[in-house]
Amino acid sequence: MLKTFFAIATCLIALAASPAHASGPELAIALNADDATVSLIDMATYKEIQQIPVGKEPHHLMATPDGKSLLVAASMSNELIVLNPKTGQVERRIKQISDPYQIGFSPDKKWFVSVSLRLDRVDIYRAEDYSLVARIPAPKAPSHVAFDAGSNFAFITLQQTGEIMAIDLKTHKEAWKLRVGPTPAGIWMTPDDKHLLVGIMGADFVRVVDWRNRKSVSYIRTAQGAHNFQALGDGKHVFVTNRVGNSISVIDQDKLALVETFPVPGGPDCMEVSRDGKELWVTSRFARKVHVIDLPSKKIKHAINVGRSPHGVYFMNHAPRR
After folding, report:
1. C-alpha R_g of the chain
2. In the chain, how many domains are there?
3. 274 DSSP 8-state letter
């Protein structure tokens, strides 16, 4: 009897100490912009297991440079919500950030840039403590941000003027503007640091910009509403969502050419790629779903119900960002 008791106790202790029991399910985290919540999705079962209230209009999210925290930009609440990326639980709130729509850290980890779409400006903070350094007018409707590898510039799309704007990160002033097309949205730096790719949401193409010479050099026709980017992780290919065309295109970043386009319904927007390169997770803004694409076949394998207007999506076990 005593031996049986100790055997059961030993099994219970081992179970409690096991990594799977201690850490819980591996989570994908999706932002529901119109519900002011985040959806926590069990990546093993492909089901939403919880919605957590955050600030109003959470649109974009990203991990801190050390990977220990996940920042949710709640634009209408004027704050960053800091989540535990493993559990999805709120750890703290950073209140001094005004209207953060799109956010990004410079590659040298010195600056935190917040793009304020509603207030027509770009705010630059010290990354170490989120203290405000500069507030730069950016008319009109600044949207997304990208950086050069040397952390010399932040590049911002201006949706209502059809331009991109370069901000000098040494002087914290506007350096130049360039017209690229109607309603530019997502912006992406190629791995060789030579070209910016700009999703032209008001048309059906991606503009290619030689940023050092400040000129457009070509365009890549994808589908209507070219919007946002995410790397496959092989250092060569990048995905772009076509939000109006209900599809996703694959671009070869070496050849600056279209590889293929495949259908994804519901207004595809933000993406995340699994580390093994087998799955592409996509928020569908108009369908209240996160779609999981089997990348070898380019077919939808799961459609996960979430909240209203899902936007940003993240999970820890993601592919490289280039």
Report:
1. 21
2. 1
3. B
